[in-house]
Write a structure and sequence with these properties.
The protein is mainly beta. It has one helix at 2-21; strands spanning 25-37, 45-59, 64-84, 90-112, 117-138, 143-147, 156-169, 174-185, 200-211.
Length: 212
């Protein structure tokens, strides 16, 4: 009985070893920056955005894999308003709108090539709003005020992500990658009546992955 148990344990260990050596799973970290938008009105401009997090990749077939993980993303947009008040005095205000999300993507990736791989990926992401900030800058009087109206927004957002990039092995277990990824919000995050507000980002990601 003991001998049989040892054989079963050895067989299981060999199976796990073979599975991990097959390179089906890799884990990694990534981060990037670029432009983003949380626009409600057409006159708003895109702002600065960044994202960073952990990534898990599971290879289904030779060239196809699933990508998931968890990341923290900051999005923003900017608008500036210049006008004269009732006394004909010039007024100038800049509004910075910031939204921070915890985001979980679920993407399908297709790889091309052998050593250096070109890849494309696409799929949905599920985002949870954790922070919102509105910064108002009075450009005439050089004053700034900050307010938060997070209760005016839906916390849960669904988006679609599309990206393309290249990865290159630096060792048997480690690869590095660079990717340009676009994320477009599909749902309206504003709770205000007659208002539509959606997010967008275009970020350049750098990543490093380790094959288990």
């Amino acid at each position: 009985m003991k001998k049989k148990s040892l054989i079963i344990m050895f067989t299981l260990l060999m199976s796990v070893s073979a599975y991990t050596q097959s390179g089906k799973i890799n884990v990694g970290v990534y981060g990037g920056a670029g432009i983003s938008s949380t626009m409600m009105f057409s006159y708003q401009k895109a702002g600065f955005g960044y994202e960073g997090g952990l990534q898990l990749e599971y290879n289904i077939y030779k060239r196809i894999s699933l990508i998931s993980g968890i990341a923290y993303e900051k999005m923003s947009s900017i608008d500036k308003i210049d006008f004269n008040d009732t006394l004909n005095n010039p007024q100038s205000f800049t509004y910075n709108h910031r939204f921070d999300f915890i985001t979980i993507p679920l993407l399908m990736r297709v790889n091309f090539g052998s050593k250096m791989k070109i890849f494309i990926n696409a799929g949905p992401s599920f985002n949870y709003l954790v922070y919102q900030e509105g910064k108002t800058i009075d450009n005439i009087n050089n004053t700034t005020s900050i307010s938060s109206y997070i209760d005016h927004y839906d916390r849960i957002e669904m988006a679609i992500e599309v990206g393309a990039g290249v990865s290159y092995p630096v060792s048997d277990k480690i690869t590095m990658s660079i990717e340009l990824r676009n994320k477009t919000g599909l749902t309206n995050i504003s709770k205000e009546d007659m208002a539509t507000q959606k997010t967008m980002s275009l970020l350049l990601h750098l990543g490093i992955n380790y094959y288990l």
